[in-house]
Amino acid sequence: MTNISRLSKKISAIAESATLKVDAKAKAMQAEGRPVISYAAGEPDFATPAHIIEAARSAHDDPKNFRYTAAVGLPALREAIAEKTARASGWAIQSSQVVVTNGGKQAVYQAFQVLLDPGDEVIVPAPYWTSYPEAIQLADGVPVAVFAGADQGYKVTVEQLEAARSERTKVLLFVSPSNPTGAVYTPEETKAIGEWADSHGLWVVADEIYQNLVYDGVRAVSIVEAAPALQDRTILVNGVAKTYAMTGWRLGWMIGPADIIKGAANLQSHLCSNVNNIAQIGAIAALTGPQQPVEEMRQAFDRRRKLIVEEMNKVPGFNCPTPEGAFYVYADVTGALGREIRGVTPTTSLELADLILDQVEVAAVPGEAFGPSGYLRFSYALGDEPLVEGIRRIQALLSE
Question: Which site among 98, 132, 310, 362 is 20 to 30 Å from 231 CA-CA?
Answer without folding.
Answer: 132
